[in-house]
Design brief:
The protein is mostly beta strands and 123 residues long. It has strands at 3-7, 10-13, 18-25, 32-39, 46-52, 57-60, 68-73, 78-83, 92-100, 112-113, 117-122. It starts with a strand and ends with a strand.
């Protein structure tokens, strides 16, 4: 059974940093594209980053480029999202998600989803 478990969310002040983790179970992350998707209250889901370990590709949405970094630890079967320079508009539930294939562009239509972790950035 494919399962994704996020952790690392919380409350942080503007300008601060957080690292989200996505532990994968039932599959190997280097065989899949893993993405981070967020959903703010009253807004649609936004794909913000993805990674495919097999080809080393990473991609970012313009809204987070230069502030967020996605990485993968295949030995731990875990993908991370390091977030820096956080802004109040980054407040959202953050999901990790997976699909077979390669990371091309961040999107919000993956096959497998975690339960989400809340990130709140105070002004």
């Amino acid at each position: 059974e494919v399962q994704l478990v996020e952790s690392g969310g919380g409350l942080v002040q503007a300008g601060g940093s957080l690292r989200l983790s996505c532990a994968a179970f039932g599959f190997t992350v280097d065989d899949y594209a893993i993405g981070w998707v967020r959903q703010a209250p009253g807004k649609e889901r936004e794909g913000i980053s993805c990674i495919s370990s097999i080809d080393g590709n990473t991609h970012y949405a313009d809204s987070v480029k230069g502030r967020f970094t996605i990485s993968s630890d295949n030995a731990k079967n875990t993908v991370y999202l390091q977030m820096a320079g956080l802004k109040p508009e980054d407040t959202a539930v953050y999901y990790c998600a997976a699909e077979r294939g390669l990371c091309r562009i961040p999107h919000a239509y993956y096959d497998y989803w975690g339960q989400g972790t809340q990130v709140t950035v105070s002004a």
